Sequence to fold (269 residues):
Amino acid sequence: MTWSKINKPEDITAELIHSYRLYLNRLEDNSGATLKRSTQNYHLIAIRSFLKYLSKRDIKSLACEKIEIGKNPAHEIEFLDGAEVERLLNSANGQDVKALRDRAILELLFSAGLRVSELVHINRDQINLERQEFSVRGKGDKIRIVFISDTAKNSIEKYLAKRQDIDPALFIRYSNKKIGEDPETKRLTPRSVQRIVKSYAAAAGIVKDVHPHTIRHSFATDLLSNGADIRSVQTMLGHSSITTTQIYTHVTNEQLKDIHKKFHGKANS
Fold:
């Protein structure tokens, strides 16, 4: 209530909230840039939560439903096209255990559309190479089945055949172990995988900012552009809501454009 200079909850009105919205819209951060819509929304969400708190305690004030949260502008996702994916995968072409591990990581990320947090928690005994599938525990502790392509299977088999350790983790690091370090830390971390992906993207001459989630986006884009329905893609990505999967409408929009071009107006031709 400092900004508004009011002292009582009942003084919070729709007009006051409107003025506060204008204030947030013009407010600049330390760099001189105006606040992002998402940041403005955080402030409004905090006020709504406060009003909800007042309502639960029968303290008279503005109804929280009166404060509408503005929609964040849709952001375009970055993904790799087919040629870029191929260049990325082929950039990991060494035959030592580290290079084979990296190729297996890249192949599996693209084959299964995994989150990096899911990838690093996979153990060797989870992978069923014969059936070319395995289960992962994703967000919200939800388990889903993911699938392994023939090329990913081949890469994993080559990598595992080269390993000479008994560590349960599927992907481990090969740098020197630090004194007093917990053996469990031999498992690759999400940050390590990010560095690996970025390194091979640079080696492949890809100028985009490539990270593990870019490969996940590329997986979904590839499925949709080849005819998969969005509900199936939702299941394979482990999205609890179809709304999350709809960020990939750039693909379906292009398909609709092609259909429109192919069929619309044919009766008049």
